[in-house]
Amino acid sequence: MMSASAGSLEVAQFPCLDDNYGYLIHDPKTGQTAAVDTPDATAYKCELERRGWTLTHILNTHHHGDHVGGNRELKTEGVQVFGPAADGNIPCMDVPLKDSDTLSFAGANAVTMDVGGHTTGHIAFYFPEEKTAFVGDSLFALGCGRMFEGTPEQYWASLQRLRNLPDDTTIYCAHEYTEGNARFAMSVEPGNPDLVRRAEEIKDKRSRGEPTVPSLMGEEKRTNPFLRGDVSPEIRQNVGATEDDDGATIFHKIRLGKDNFRG
User: How far is CA 104 from CA 24, 43, 140, 220, 239, in A?
Assistant: First the structure.
């Protein structure tokens, strides 16, 4: 369990299910508390009770069960559920959000980002003043979610939007997949010294049972292969991309490489 500051807000991070992370965003002044996705209601209730916080908001990124599974149990009187307007499968949703919508939370403003690709309606919550983004399964530390519903063109456009965030943006993703992601990243860009260093740091952290999430967007830009296909000749060569391939095609080849990777 971890706590971090994001401007005036406090972020609590705790494990859920097998490899999910749960997040609570808390404002000490107003007492408002938001859950970012709800993998497991029991884990959230325990964390809220442990900290003495009262849930007021649920922010859902997409409809998969390990992200909305606790909605119905946590949706009590006074709790509002916010989720993607393009996704009709969010349980108990009160407020649908579209790309560039602004959500006011405890005096902070979260901008909704369309990051569809893992699912077609996937959104992220970006707090620009707090330099923090909650990205669900659209982007992982050294990886990205499988393309279950979207298209390569849609997903690549989403990743470019995320890549345009400032380097000092803290990225909270939903799963502890980083060690496996690092092995794949090293298979397609072993000549990247930043990646080599990061892979060693990740291995050390996991050997001590420490989380590798969150990360900084600057780190992802330098080391995440799914953000680097259009800038790294080494990656393009190793996934079989040609000079004529556009960014979406290169991304798709990287994604297929990861889907079939057994390293």
Answer: 16, 26, 26, 28, 42
- Out of 26, 57, 175, 252, which one is annotated catalytic? 175
Catalytic site includes residue 66: yes
The single residue listed with the structure tokens 């972020």 is: 11
Q: How many CB atoms lie under 10 A from the CB of residue 56?
A: 18
* 245 classed as catalytic: no
Cα(92)–Cα(95) distance, integer angstroms:
9
Among candidate residues 57, 62, 63, 122, the one labeled active-site is: 62
Q: Is 26 a catalytic residue?
A: no
Q: Is 64 a catalytic residue?
A: yes
* Residue 1 pLDDT > 90: no
Known catalytic residue: 175? Answer: yes
Whole-number Å distance between alpha carbons of 135 and 126: 8
Its pTM surpasses 0.90 = yes
User: Which amino acid, residue 32?
Assistant: Q
**What pLDDT was estimated at residue 7?**
80
